[in-house]
Write a structure and sequence with these properties.
GO molecular function: acyltransferase activity, transferring groups other than amino-acyl groups; hydrolase activity, hydrolyzing O-glycosyl compounds
Number of domains: 4
Keywords: Glycoprotein, Glycosidase, Hydrolase
CATH topology of the largest domain: TIM Barrel
CATH superfamily of the largest domain: Glycoside hydrolase, family 3, N-terminal domain
Family: Belongs to the glycosyl hydrolase 3 family.
Organism: Westerdykella ornata
Pfam families: Acetyltransf_1, Glyco_hydro_3
Largest sheet: 13 strands, mixed
Shape: globular
Helix content: 25-40%
Oligomer: single chain
Low-confidence stretches: 1-5, 412-445, 581-590, 929-934
Length: about 950
């Protein structure tokens, strides 16, 4: 604060008035509510956050901003309100107006143009438009560096993974905003670009990088923006944990705000906290205490998004903190000076009470429309076009049909589809999410891409077929359309986080590669994949021969895409950051002799190794090998080829490491089912050697199509264990270094219901089940195999058919519960039941782990034609529990469940998660780059 005058207008001697300037609050509704009016009049609120839920149009926004300022003015506020919004373009626009507010590419989309000059112009135009409506503070630029780009929710909201590039575009955006006369805010300090997400909403995302690592990368854009005059900074609510830096929430940490941001980076502008209403923060600390901690840490403005009662709690908390001398008045007035200085730069009563509104927007519209078109046209990026499919006229005759396949997605806040749909639906109010995921979108798939299909159709004489796809995968309707079409376009939107899109696209690619002409000659069917959000979906997957990125799916972006597809526009965009550079995987040299497992020779030594691994597991951790023996890995199944490997001491016969592999011929899947090393001999490349031998062996299998880490059968390791944070991170990193993309993982888990003898079904569930009209029965033995195995074939999940065949072959200890349609007797669902005496249980050690009389439920299959999927699944499991209870078992194991399923229903039935895993899959082509042994 050096050099600042200590003299303030006497009006600020009123401490309540002063403290009101240190809050930024939001509210529900598109007009002034009694609550926000009371906050301005009675509590002297100085800053307001508007979101898409407040803003209907440019005209209504102008009116709302004026009314808010008029209330403040009439209430005697010495200075106008600071009114802020998120207006990042792309997918994050709070203010949308089809007529007066132009759409521009996302941050990454602008970076793809390669022009910081264009970034400046886009930012200036954006700020001019919101300023015309009375908004004086923009929550931008986004300065995060995607140091872990593949699985972060920020996605295209940042310029990429190169800190210098992010910095250059961040500063350009900031200067553009300033040129238009509004205040700027950098976010999300100290970086949301490499967060570890633990799962629960009450688990805070964590930054684990050290200060040194942050300084070399993530902090560069923040440091440069500060030097160029950034007005304010948002400090995130994430946790930080590394050597010398520990904070439960960054924005509440004096070490982060006063230390790192103020002292180290020399920032003396306004610091804004993350919203204190975020679940983890309010649950862990409480809003009153959190407000005191935020101000003491160095935050000048405390953000509270919407709940009036919580906002009152925060106001009371700050006042109590000052009265109890927990917060010094010096701290309060230092913050007030910063807020007043920022307001002086971006507003005045003359400006606040006279927003130009529509009159100015009408004059800006022609030049801004041209700028929007220019920016989008320059951003579209053709990453690869190996077979020269572009323009489409190269490969598609007029009489041939073009097929467009689009995912069901959330429309962007800045889209007409989203606006139309949100106005037609009544949605439940939910707590305001954290800032990095705040949008105003509702679920719909058909509307948002329908206009794209129409645009494609308008440009050609032949027909355009358009249908959507979901997590149900490639259905017969898709296969029929693919066979019929002359060329296919598949759209993906963040396929690295919506994994069904990745699997669907790879499946379509496989179908296109297997097409044949009528004469029997192989002809690869033209396939174009378009990533309409994150470019990371298939950037490094060269098996996708033609790959285009648009960086968002607003109407303007898709209009430019159509021009590129039909050759009316030469694509100029380039992938931002480092992803355009080839990333070669480094594989360990094979230092150890790997031998094939010999059951006669190695079984006893394997039991000894399993015991050593069990004993080497920390007491607080559960070992997946707790009840496993050497027999647990030997399937001896006619339709599964198994090869197991060991690293051994040929002199002592001791095993140092073991790896089991299985090739499931029915699905063409090669599986690593287990890989473990003697704890006393880790970090010696034994695991690397076993892994490389396993991959090479599986690659030689005829018909191999995909690889999987984790196995349903045997059900020992369902994937990478994820029960403990540090161990999970270590294992993920280890497998990632071997070439597995853990970002493309699928959560799976074991679940258990205990105290079954005193259990009773949830009230109403039987009635709900009866309403489906489905008939259930239980059968035993191979006589019933035909229809059951036909149903199983409708799912491509690895190991399903093999589980059912084991169960059908063991009628004394296994049964199949069937669900049938009464009108035609067609099977629509099945599930396997087994007990301790069954052959199947030998491969599911988790059943023995329960250490009490227990039965198991395995491998539910529901027909894709069934609408009531959840109800039928719960019904099969409910009936299975009843059967197991009748056998006098006190526990029931669900041995392999999708971890992203709806667990509320299972919890109501008495189940809890026993252990979590991440099942990782990849295309077989991923491993062809492994160098030969030598």
């Amino acid at each position: 604060m050096a050099g600042r005058s200590d003299k303030l207008d006497p009006v600020w001697d009123d401490l309540d008035r002063t403290m009101g300037q240190l809050f930024m609050m939001g509210f529900d509704g598109t007009t002034v509510t009694p609550q926000i009016k009371a906050l301005i009049e009675d509590h002297h609120l100085g800053c307001i956050l508007l979101t898409a839920k407040n803003l209907k149009s440019a005209e209504d926004t102008t009116k709302l901003c004026y009314e808010l300022q008029k209330i403040a003015h009439d209430a005697g506020h010495p200075v106008p309100l600071a009114i802020g919004i998120d207006q990042e373009n792309g997918g994050v626009n709070s203010l949308f107006d089809e007529i007066y507010i132009r759409q521009y590419p996302s941050n990454m989309g602008v970076a793809a143009t390669g022009s910081t000059e264009l970034a400046f112009e886009v930012a200036k135009a954006t700020a001019q438009e919101i300023s015309a409506c009375g908004i004086n503070w923009i929550f931008g630029p986004c300065l995060d560096v995607l140091t872990n780009a593949r699985n972060q929710p920020l996605g295209v909201r940042t310029a990429g993974d190169d800190p210098q590039e992010v910095s250059a575009y961040g500063v350009a955006f900031m200067k553009g905003y300033k040129e238009a006369g509004i205040a700027t805010l950098g976010k999300h300090f100290p970086s949301y670009g490499n967060l570890e997400f633990l799962g629960s909403t009450l688990d805070v995302p964590i930054i684990t990088e050290s200060l040194e690592q942050l300084s070399l990368s993530a902090l560069i854009p923040f440091r440069n923006a500060i030097r160029q005059g950034l007005d304010s900074m948002m400090v995130g609510g994430c946790a930080m944990s590394s050597a010398g830096l520990h904070a439960m929430h960054a924005c509440l940490s004096e070490q982060v705000v006063d230390g790192l941001l103020r002292s180290d980076l020399k920032f003396d502008g306004v610091v804004v906290s993350e919203c204190l209403e975020m679940d983890a923060l309010s649950h862990n600390i409480g809003v009153g205490g959190g407000t005191v901690m935020a101000v003491n840490a160095g935050c000048d403005v405390v953000l509270l998004c919407r709940s009036f009662s919580v906002q009152q709690e925060a106001l009371k908390g700050l006042k109590t903190g000052v009265e109890n001398a927990m917060i010094s008045k010096k701290r309060i007035y230092n913050s007030l000076r910063r807020v007043l200085e920022m307001k002086a730069k971006c507003t005045s009563w003359e400006k606040a009470l006279n927003p130009p509104g529509i009159a100015l927007l009408e004059t800006l519209q022609p030049s801004h429309t041209a700028l929007s078109t220019k920016a989008y046209n320059r951003s579209i990026t053709v990453v690869r076009d190996k077979n020269r499919l572009l323009p489409l006229t190269n490969v598609l005759d007029n009489e041939e049909e073009l097929l467009l396949l689009t995912p069901l997605v959330k429309p962007l806040a800045a889209s007409a589809a989203s606006r139309a749909l949100s106005e037609s639906l009544t949605t439940e109010k939910s707590p305001e999410p954290a800032l990095w995921e705040r949008t105003a979108s509702v679920m719909s798939g058909e509307r948002v891409f329908r206009e794209l299909g129409r645009s494609l159709a308008r440009q050609r004489n032949g027909r355009v077929l358009h249908t959507s796809y979901t997590a149900n995968g490639v259905r017969p309707v898709h296969e029929n359309l693919i066979n019929r079409a002359g060329a296919i376009i598949v759209l993906t939107a963040d396929a690295n986080r919506n994994l069904y899109q990745h699997g669907f696209t790879k499946h379509v690619s496989m179908i296109c590669n297997m097409q044949y002409t009528t004469g029997g000659e192989k002809r690869e069917k033209p396939l174009i994949v378009v990533a309409v959000s994150s470019p990371y979906d298939f950037a490094m997957d060269s098996s996708i021969g033609t790959y285009i990125c648009t960086y968002d799916f607003t109407e303007t972006a898709l209009t430019s895409l159509v021009k590129v597809l039909y050759g009316e526009l030469t694509p100029q965009g380039t992938l931002p950051g480092t992803i355009s550079k080839s990333q070669k995987l480094q594989h360990s040299k094979q230092h150890w002799l790997v031998e094939t497992f010999n059951e006669d020779r190695d079984a006893n030594a394997l039991d000894t190794l399993i015991k050593a691994v069990r004993e080497g597991t920390p007491p607080s951790h559960r070992s997946e090998l707790a009840s496993a023996t050497s027999n647990s890995f030997i399937l001896n199944h006619a339709e599964v080829e198994e090869s197991h490997f060991v690293v051994r001491n040929s002199s002592t016969q001791a095993l140092y490491g073991f790896c089991s592999t299985y090739f499931f011929k029915t699905t063409g899947t090669g599986v690593i089912g287990a890989l473990f090393v003697d704890p006393a001999r880790r970090k010696l490349s034994i695991g690397h050697s076993l892994h490389n031998r396993a991959i090479r062996t599986l690659l030689q299998k005829e018909g191999i199509r995909r690889f999987q880490l984790g196995s349903r059968l045997p059900s020992i390791f369902l994937g990478i264990p994820t029960g403990h944070g540090a161990e999970r991170k270590r294992l993920r990193s280890w497998f990632a270094n071997l070439g597995w993309n853990a970002a493309l993982s699928r959560p799976v888990c074991n679940m258990v219901a205990r105290n079954l003898l005193s259990w009773s079904p949830p009230e109403g569930m039987a009635k709900s089940l009866a309403s489906t009209g489905i008939q259930f029965d239980m059968v035993y033995g191979w006589d019933y195999a035909g229809p059951i195995l036909d149903l199983v074939k409708t799912s491509n999940r690895q190991g399903l058919a093999e589980v059912y065949k084991l169960a059908l072959s063991d009628p004394s200890a296994c049964g199949i519960i069937r669900a049938k349609r009464p009108e035609d007797g067609v099977l629509v669902g099945t599930v396997v039941l087994y007990n301790h005496q069954s052959h199947l249980s030998e491969f599911i050690p988790a059943l023995k782990d329960l250490k009490e009389a227990a039965g198991g439920i395995s491998s539910p299959v529901i027909s894709p034609s069934v609408g009531e999927y959840s109800t039928l699944l719960q019904g099969l499991i409910l009936l299975g529990m009843k059967q197991i209870k009748q056998q006098r078992c006190n526990a029931c194991l669900l041995d392999y469940m999708d971890g992203d399923g709806n667990f509320d229903g299972f919890s109501a039935m008495g189940f809890e998660v026993l252990h979590n895993f991440e099942e990782v899959s990849c295309d077989a082509a991923t491993w062809t780059m492994i160098p030969p042994a030598g």
